[in-house]
Specification:
Length: 261
């Protein structure tokens, strides 16, 4: 089951997003890289909130029959992050979902790749650095004086002999760029995250040193290696866990890095 978006709503090509879960109050979609869940001053890309509402107002049957009166995202994911995206189907449901998110009643687990660290690094890390938007750049910075509270817990999931590590980042609430900023603070910036000093993706040759073929000097991955893997909704929102598998390019990278389970 999926929801379709004809061009030019989310780009020049038709796009269908898989429905991960659904109730009378909300719809969970598998968000790809390239679109935010809603508009943000730092983004220039289309957002899914607007795309859903454009089609709802136009009377698209696959949205109308879901009983929605308006769509609104529970939380913000920026265009560089893939994974679970939850959208309310009414204003009342949106208020409930955002209250559930803001009060920390739910749980969010991200997966990301970083470069290997010293062998004595702890497998469990925690960052509670308060975060504040940079006054010029589109990024968050730690600030004990003016920053807002933020807490992320990290667990090392797997390590590759090729020099890369798979991490899980868990939060009950997250601010804009929180996972990216906190990973950088702890010295484990995310692969492809130039904004927070993350490492560049390795080339195909670095992952397959013994192979000889065209394209081995090209990067093995484009973009940010960060994915919202699962969302656990609790309390009045629902009692459910919504899961999203990493997209095919990230799955391929994990296999090439020998990080896939």
């Amino acid at each position: 089951m999926a929801v379709g978006f004809p061009p030019p709503i989310l780009g020049k090509k038709p796009l269908r997003l898989s429905v991960l879960a659904e109730t009378n109050d909300w719809l969970a979609l598998d968000k790809p890289i390239g679109f935010g869940t809603r508009a943000h001053p730092w983004d220039n890309e289309p957002n899914i909130d607007e795309a859903l509402n454009i089609q709802l107002e136009a009377g698209k049957p696959e949205l109308v029959r879901r009983g929605a009166t308006v769509f609104g995202s529970m939380y913000y994911l920026d265009p560089s992050v893939s994974g679970v995206a939850v959208f309310a189907k009414s204003r009342d449901a949106l208020a409930k979902l955002r209250n559930c998110f803001g009060s920390g009643e739910s749980s969010f687990r991200f997966k990301f790749i970083s470069a290997s660290q010293p062998v004595d690094q702890e497998p469990y890390l925690e960052c509670a650095a308060p975060l504040l938007p940079h006054n010029v750049k589109p990024k968050m910075i730690p600030s004990t004086a003016k920053g807002k509270k933020a807490l992320t817990k990290f667990q090392r999931i797997a390590e590759s002999p090729k020099g890369w590590v798979l991490w899980e980042a868990q939060a009950t609430f997250f601010r804009h760029h929180q996972i990216r900023a906190h990973a950088s603070v702890l010295g484990i910036p995310i692969l492809g995250d130039a904004l927070y000093n993350g490492p560049e993706a390795p080339t195909q040759r670095e992952l397959y040193p013994n192979k000889q073929r065209y394209g081995l000097n090209l990067p093995a991955y484009q973009g940010l290696a960060l994915h919202l893997n699962d969302v656990e909704l609790n309390s009045d929102c629902a009692e459910v866990t919504i899961m999203s598998e990493p997209h095919k390019h990230l799955r391929l990278l994990l296999r090439r890095m020998e990080l896939a389970g």
